[in-house]
Amino acid sequence: MMVRLLVVAVFSLHAHGLGLLRGGFGPADLDTEAQAPLHNYRLSEHGRVANEKTSLTLLYQNNLNSSDDQNHAGAILLDPTGQHDLRDACEEIGETMISLSTIMEYKEDFLNIFSYHFYVRNQTEKIEQERFYIRNGVLIVKDGDEHFEHHPFPSRNVQLPVLCTQSSSGGGERRDRDAQRQLIRVNSESNTYIGSRDRKSFRFLGIPYADSPTRFSYAKPYSGKFHTIEATEYGPSCVQFAGGSENCLYLNIQTPYIPKKNSTLGLRPVLFWIHGGDFTAGTGSDPVTDGGNLASREDIVVVTFNYRLSTLGFLAVPGTDIQGNYGIADQLLALEWTIKHIAQFGGDPRQITIMGEGAGASSVKALLSSPHARGKFQGAIAMSDVKDGVHIVHVPGEAPNNSYLSILELYQTTGQKVFSEARCEGTTEQQISCLRELSAFTLVTLPTVARHVVQDGKYIDTPGLDHGAEHADIPVMFGNTVDEGASFIQYPSTDIKTELDGIQEPLDLSTTQALRILDSNHFPSPNTGNITLDSFTIAQRIATDVKVRCPNQAAIYAGVSSGKIKPSYYYQMQRTMGGVDPNNIGGPPPTPDSPNGDPQLPYFRLHGSDLPFVFGNLDTIRDPSDLYAAQLISSYFAEFVRSGQPNPDAKYLTARGYKRTLKALRAFGPWEPVHNASGPIQMLDFPSQNAPFQDLEQCEFLGFPDNVLA
């Protein structure tokens, strides 16, 4: 009886608009063990959807230098409004009309903002000037003119677009009336989503795209109806070694634009990001891949999300209904939610590019092969897809390059070990029942976990990467960093006496195999005088070639030569920061002029260390070229999202005021598609330059597409 009364009480609060339920859970979703927290926001403070009468465009000249943010100001652009509604128009979003003094104080920023405004408007209609309502009058801006005109309000009720202040920095510490009004309320179908905004983007976090999944079953689309979902905080990550929850299927949206309710005008291209982590770790809330900067600087919408991991996401048992690929099915469910709802958040459902790194790149390739994904995206980027397994030499139980194990193969090498280590005995049915009773954390921390995509006959129905006829016209991009292997092998724990010893242990090679490699002269020593470091450098290069570079270069060339994946682009990231660093080898060494490390000195470009430059999220700027490279590289990737090729249009860059990026592109030349066995590829840095496929002789020696060391 007490439980029933509690549920009724919570329902009463929700129904009368006195609180919001985190994640949108209605009364039927509450239980006595885990209730969604109630918040003290009154719905009456922001009861009407923000875009009921107007679209909202967040204007900000983002140079990706967060330490410089205080020197810039933004604005929010509203649709044409009559004078009688001016005050309410900005006040309803917790702002006021922007002043002429603010525009003049940050004139250079606003010149670029207005230049891009004309560029966008002129895609559909030719205009030479635009008038905006601002505080105390009308601002007149002429295309190509650096001078602004300010006039009094007109004598009649003319409808003009409105420029509001943009005072939110996203700190979240304010709880006053204006802070509550700055929450952005958007409807999509029967539900309402309350997001927030920071200096650079509108943010909707922790949106449930599926109901809480049942263990070892495919998730179902979110079924909540008439819910108000507070989307201001990330949902929990999926269960992994660091923690998490089984109720984890949430996605996040960062967007520069909210269209007017029920309007499809001005929708932006969408980047659908699939996180990496070896299918055992990772989250859509990683700050390194936060989409706010990319959305702001490049005027696109970024979607990130969680999917089930490890044994909870990939266990497959033959002869049962546990068929695996639950994590892949989650990805498709998130993609389908995006297609269905993203227009309400400013994204174009007909212009979606899927992108992932590591396991996310493997997922991109799986979706390229999946019959369930056909027609659901228009571009694909696979960053640093890693050859299955931790071994350089092929061992039983690992799928060959760009191929998938059968359910039986996975069960024989993984599933049986999971049952044994979990001490689940008896018939198969009893073993499965035992796994269902164990805690989620126990399952994902066993010595053996399931983490492979399999041929399940449903989501994956081919033995390997199959860019079929339905995807033949979808542009793709593959790539790698220079030293991926340094993230996957162990640095010697003791000083090494010979290079032979130095490569045998980390690569798990026999003496004969190691001698063959050294005698080939394909992997010369850097001869630094430190044999231990030299040995690791050789070993990591071999690991990079075997696990990442050679299979991905071979895969994209195979697709191009067969005509199955055109157009296709390839890159190698030359400048990086951070990344997967189990050996704590760090980045470039510091110097007096570069106390945070000098990128001009030798250092290992690790797995995942390209992400700060792609998303424009630099923790530190070691030298000016770090910032310039982030501006250039993020521009390449965003242009691929916009147009299916990575070379930004000069008119676009001019309109945005991205002069340095434009100058660099003109000086370095275009990024060419792969068209033969030599490439070409793009070496991404500042400057960026064209080059052939890397380590072709080494790849041939290693026997790609078949590993000669097997």
From TrEMBL:
Keywords: Hydrolase, Signal
Positions of region (Disordered): 580-600
Family: Belongs to the type-B carboxylesterase/lipase family.
Classification via InterPro entries: AB_hydrolase_fold (IPR029058), CarbesteraseB (IPR002018), Cholinesterase (IPR000997)
SUPFAM superfamilies: alpha/beta-Hydrolases
Domain Carboxylesterase type B: 202-665
Name of this protein: Carboxylesterase type B domain-containing protein
Keyword Hydrolase: yes
Pfam families recorded: COesterase
PANTHER family noted in UniProt: CARBOXYLIC ESTER HYDROLASE, PUTATIVE (AFU_ORTHOLOGUE AFUA_3G09070)-RELATED
